[in-house]
């Protein structure tokens, strides 16, 4: 079974009928979904969704895209939430990471200092609770790398929705960060990303849809879905040397190990 390592399964259209979309996912061979949160407003939503269904796991974090929305108490609230689920006593095995967190300098008027402060603090929390991080980054690669070097995530992490160059991917891998492979590679014109992903060690890769965002080729204009992880895997098979079975099991194993999900 495949693992969708990044899917906003608490968003519409999934929120209206999660059981239906989970069935579609399972039919396509996707048995596990990791749901990153965006901030205070959906921490409890993702947590309760994961309590209701098998195969769903979540991450708690403060998404940089919504940094204007995070309250001044956001970090201490996050720390409290993590203490409840990731501390030694009340451990909720469904909480598997801190995220998503990161830097998004593509937003008009981005408050870069605030974003860097929130990311650094979340890296500290991840280390404190022994969790990996789910990273989001747009137009801030050098800044992200320097924050990661200052506070290395000891339980590792994943750079989600990677679409950069080979040297960038190698820099991340050197920092212990896995590469999240999403729908970009399903587009033949995405040569740079396809060539980069083809050249990386298979053990550094994990699959993700980022659904309902990032539609795969052939389904533009509709919300993306976790069952389309299968299409992303097919594109990976197309651009790499290894067999479909090897790619499926290696990418699932990498995600399962990072998030410590028992398969
Ligand atoms: Zn996301």
TrEMBL record:
Record flagged with keyword RNA-binding: no
Superkingdom of source: Bacteria
Gene3D superfamilies: Metal-dependent hydrolases
Keywords: Hydrolase
PROSITE patterns xrefs: TATD_1, TATD_3
InterPro entries with a match to the protein in the record: DNase_TatD-rel_CS (IPR018228), Metal_Hydrolase (IPR032466), TatD-like (IPR001130)
PANTHER family reported in the protein's UniProt record: D-AMINOACYL-TRNA DEACYLASE, HYDROLASE
Family that this chain belongs to: Belongs to the metallo-dependent hydrolases superfamily. TatD-type hydrolase family.
Record protein name field: TatD family deoxyribonuclease
């Amino acid at each position: 079974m495949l693992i969708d390592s990044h899917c906003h399964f608490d968003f519409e259209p999934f929120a209206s009928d999660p059981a239906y979309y989970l069935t579609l996912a399972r039919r396509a061979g996707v048995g596990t979904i990791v749901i990153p949160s965006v901030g205070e407003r959906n921490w409890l939503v993702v947590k309760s969704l994961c309590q209701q269904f098998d195969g769903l796991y979540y991450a708690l974090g403060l998404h940089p895209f919504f940094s204007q929305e995070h309250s001044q108490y956001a970090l201490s609230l996050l720390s409290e939430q993590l203490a409840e689920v990731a501390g030694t006593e009340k451990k909720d095995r469904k909480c598997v990471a801190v995220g998503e967190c990161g830097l998004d300098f593509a937003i008009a008027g981005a408050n870069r200092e605030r974003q860097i402060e929130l990311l650094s603090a979340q890296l500290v929390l991840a280390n404190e609770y022994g969790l990996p991080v789910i990273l989001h980054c747009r137009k801030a690669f050098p800044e992200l790398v320097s924050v990661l070097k200052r506070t290395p995530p000891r339980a590792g992490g994943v750079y989600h929705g990677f679409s950069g160059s080979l040297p960038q991917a190698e820099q991340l891998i050197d920092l212990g960060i896995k590469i999240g492979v999403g729908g970009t590679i399903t587009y033949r014109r995405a040569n740079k990303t396809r060539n980069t992903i083809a050249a990386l060690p298979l053990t550094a890769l994990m699959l993700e849809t980022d659904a309902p965002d990032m539609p795969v080729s052939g389904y533009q204009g509709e919300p993306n879905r976790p069952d389309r992880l299968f299409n992303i895997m097919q594109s990976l098979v197309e651009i790499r040397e290894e067999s479909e079975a090897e790619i499926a099991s290696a990418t699932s194993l990498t995600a399962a190990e990072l998030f410590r999900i028992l398969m």
